Each structure stands twice: as structure tokens, then as C-alpha cells.
Amino acid sequence: MSKRIPNGTVLATVDELDKLTASALAPVVIDRDGTPWIVFQTEDGADCAWTVPCPDLDIHGGTDFEGLLLRAPLRVVFNGDTNPETWPRQDRQGVTA
User: Fold this and answer.
1) For the CA atoms of 63, 65, 69, 74, what is the dihedral angle to 10 degrees?
2) For the chain, which residues make up each domain, given as ranges?
3) Is the pLDDT of residue 47 over 80?
């Protein structure tokens, strides 16, 4: 069994984001508005989330995990695992962390 958080999982805490980034190089989550964010930790341990800036929608492009959680709920859309069997089927509901 994979140690990765499954694609489709809803995340709501910094600890869950930490767990996601610990098991993947550059996982992607979407926020409540559908904006995708690449989440990662720097070499010095700082947590980061980046997306394309869109000032008209109050999206500044970069934030830490606390700032990203203001846009919750967050759903994992790519957990770093490229195996097609790990992707949720269309008929399957997402899971919570």
C-alpha cells in the first residue's frame, strides 16, 4: 500500500499538507474555487504553495500553508504517483485525510 495521500482526498490542516509534501516531489491541490496550487517544502523547511497570480480574483501567486488553508477545502488532484491505478474513478467519491 502506498504511503501517499490518495488523489481526491480533502485536506484541512497544515499537518495533512506536511504529510502530502513528505511523500511527493510536487503535489498539486485545488482550492474551493478550483484554483490549482503546487505545494512543497523548501530545503530549509519552509512550506510553500504557488499558482499563477490573478489579482482580479485575489490570488497572489504564492503563500505558505496557513495562507493556503484560508482557501480551503483543498482537494489533492496529484499526489506524485503516476500509476493510473491510483487515480480515483469517476464513480468514486473523494476521501478525507
Assistant:
1) 100
2) 10-72
3) yes
- Would you say the C-alpha torsion 58, 52, 48, 6 has a positive or negative sign? positive
Place of cell 512550506: 47
SS3 95: coil
Cβ contacts of 93 within 8 Å, gap of 6 or more: 8
What DSSP character marks residue 2? Answer: -
Distance CA 71, CA 6 (A): 20
C-alpha 92/C-alpha 65 separation (Å) is 27
pTM score, whole prediction: 0.80
